């Protein structure tokens, strides 16, 4: 036998034995549990609770406010009163499984419809919609990133288009063929005309075309572009080639717009979005361009280039405040006339801006050299503080009309801040989106897929058929799709619309439109722009949605209801 070494113990070689001994000592040191009261049923444990050997929660000193052992013995032992940290893991699971079904948390009424549609297994809520359905919904000039149509009728007619149907749809789009479907289609899946028109409604035009990059949206898209191949970011010669090609495409679109061969198009930069609209659309009799969001620097640069523009939302807010102040002033004057002596001994009125900008009192005190006077720039910024406060907000929307849009075109082509100089989007030209073909544009199609699921409606499960459309969905595409769904889905469908928020402000009523707008002249020129006559009639109406876009659309029978 090996000689015994003083202070040597071979017990460290067997940690399980040491752990068992430690657990046994802890059990002996614990006080005996109080016996349950009469009438209280205690469920026996299926297995002894095993303590975590690495935990020291039980060795922690008890709080002073904890009840004494005698008081604990008089209280009924409720499992819910135990600390979750000291309870065994399977007991926590059993508590959850023992909850009654009626106690399950249901979505509140304020829950947004957009989050509920992510899981079709949840009950489909019906949001508040206008009480009186209308034959047509208003034009929505915001760009949608996703549409989710839901109906009790299947969308099998939108699946697996044949090669001939796809080619026919492309040809109808390029030739601007007008498709008029019957009011009701008995067999939508067998309707070749319907399937070709569906393919036609999914087409849009894009520049530049870089298949490995997602070119919309551009605002806040750095995370989606980072890590992708961008060979132009460090190559100035390649950047100049891209910008030269982009300028040609931009000019081509503007020429089409001016000739009313293109109804509208979008210029999407990494900081702001510009919407160009032809004369006759959105209730305006001249060509217009709206920019949002803007900053003081951008507006100052536009002024320096001689571009005349206005901030309609800021002016509307200022006019509303003036009317409100005039009303308060009239009430105050009436109050003063009632009490003529109320102003005697009162405080003096607040000094005006001119009085505050006068520094003559500093000379009287002899400290004019010790106090730093604000320079002209600071005084100008102070005067424009209300205008600066709207930077990067929807209220900063700028409106350019008439011939000033051509000056804006040249300004954007030559503006160096139009393209990012650093970051994932460095050197990448803005994205051009158009409903019609233009020079340098690439034909693209929206992604469509049908989804079948069961949704819980009250106490039963019903089949819910949905059609998902993903991509930069332009205003004309939204209206074209709804015209197809009306006969295909028997006039019964609803839709959840996901709006690109920076473009929602394009739905605001920008200015007083001309009441003498000649509708016959507009209809005579605009039908050659490539849109369906009904879609064109919708886009001609004055915007009525304010600074938000349609988020929920429902079709029942012959009427539309919507919610913003």
Automatic annotation (TrEMBL):
Keywords: Developmental protein, Nucleus
Disordered as annotated region, ranges: 24-85
Subcellular location: Nucleus
GO terms under biological process: nuclear DNA replication
GO cellular component labels: nucleus
Organism name: Ceyx cyanopectus
Primary localization: nucleus
Family membership noted in the UniProt record: Belongs to the DONSON family.
PANTHER family: DOWNSTREAM NEIGHBOR OF SON, PROTEIN DOWNSTREAM NEIGHBOR OF SON
Organism lineage: Eukaryota, Metazoa, Chordata, Craniata, Vertebrata
Compositionally biased tracts (Low complexity): 41-56, 65-85
Descriptive protein name: DONS protein
């Amino acid at each position: 036998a090996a000689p015994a070494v003083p202070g040597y113990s071979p017990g460290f070689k067997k940690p399980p034995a040491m752990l068992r001994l430690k657990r046994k000592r802890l059990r002996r040191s614990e006080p005996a549990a109080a016996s349950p009261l009469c009438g209280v049923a205690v469920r026996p444990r299926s297995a002894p609770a095993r303590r975590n050997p690495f935990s020291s929660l039980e060795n922690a000193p008890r709080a002073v406010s904890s009840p004494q052992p005698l008081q604990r013995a008089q209280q009924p032992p409720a499992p819910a009163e135990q600390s979750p940290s000291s309870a065994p893991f399977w007991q926590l699971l059993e508590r959850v499984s023992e909850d009654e079904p009626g106690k399950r948390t249901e979505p509140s009424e304020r829950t947004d419809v957009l989050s509920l549609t992510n899981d079709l297994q949840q009950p489909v809520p019906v949001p508040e919609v206008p009480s009186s359905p209308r034959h047509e919904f208003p034009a929505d000039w915001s760009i949608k990133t996703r549409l989710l149509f839901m109906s009790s009728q299947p969308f099998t007619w939108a699946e697996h288009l044949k090669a001939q149907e796809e080619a026919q749809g492309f040809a109808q789009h390029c030739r601007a063929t007008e498709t008029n479907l019957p009011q009701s289609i008995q067999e939508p899946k067998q309707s070749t005309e319907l399937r070709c028109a569906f393919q036609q409604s999914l087409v849009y035009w894009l520049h530049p075309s870089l298949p490995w990059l997602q070119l919309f949206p551009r605002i806040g898209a750095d995370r989606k572009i980072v890590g992708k191949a961008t060979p132009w970011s460090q190559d100035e010669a390649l950047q100049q080639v891209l910008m030269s090609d982009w300028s040609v495409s931009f000019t081509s679109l503007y020429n089409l717009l001016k000739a009313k061969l293109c109804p509208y198009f979008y210029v999407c930069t990494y900081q702001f979005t510009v919407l160009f609209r032809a004369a006759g659309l959105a209730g305006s009799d001249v060509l217009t361009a709206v920019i949002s969001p803007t900053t003081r620097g951008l507006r100052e640069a536009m002024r320096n280039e001689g571009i005349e523009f206005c901030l309609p939302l800021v002016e509307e807010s200022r006019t509303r405040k003036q009317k409100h102040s005039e009303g308060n002033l009239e009430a105050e004057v009436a109050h003063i006339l009632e009490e003529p002596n109320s102003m005697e001994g009162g405080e003096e009125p607040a000094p005006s801006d001119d009085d505050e900008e006068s520094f003559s009192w500093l000379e009287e005190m002899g400290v004019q050299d010790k106090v730093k006077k604000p320079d002209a720039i600071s005084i100008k910024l102070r005067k424009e503080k209300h205008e600066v406060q709207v930077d990067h907000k929807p209220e900063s929307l700028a409106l350019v009309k008439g011939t000033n849009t051509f000056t804006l075109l040249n300004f954007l082509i030559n503006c160096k801040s139009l393209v990012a100089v650093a970051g994932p989007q460095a050197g990448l030209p803005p994205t051009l989106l158009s409903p019609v073909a233009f020079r340098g544009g690439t034909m693209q199609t929206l992604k469509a897929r049908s989804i079948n699921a069961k949704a819980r409606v009250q106490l039963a499960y019903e089949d819910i058929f949905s059609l998902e459309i993903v991509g930069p969905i332009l205003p004309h595409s939204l209206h074209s799709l709804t015209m197809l769904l009306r006969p295909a889905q028997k006039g019964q469908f609803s839709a959840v619309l996901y709006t690109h928020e920076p473009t929602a402000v394009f739905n605001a009523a920008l200015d007083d439109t001309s009441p003498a707008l000649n509708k016959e002249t507009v209809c005579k020129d605009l039908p050659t722009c490539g849109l369906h006559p009904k879609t064109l009639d919708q886009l001609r109406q004055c915007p009525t949605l304010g600074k938000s876009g349609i988020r929920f659309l429902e079709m029942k029978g012959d009427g539309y209801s919507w919610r913003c």
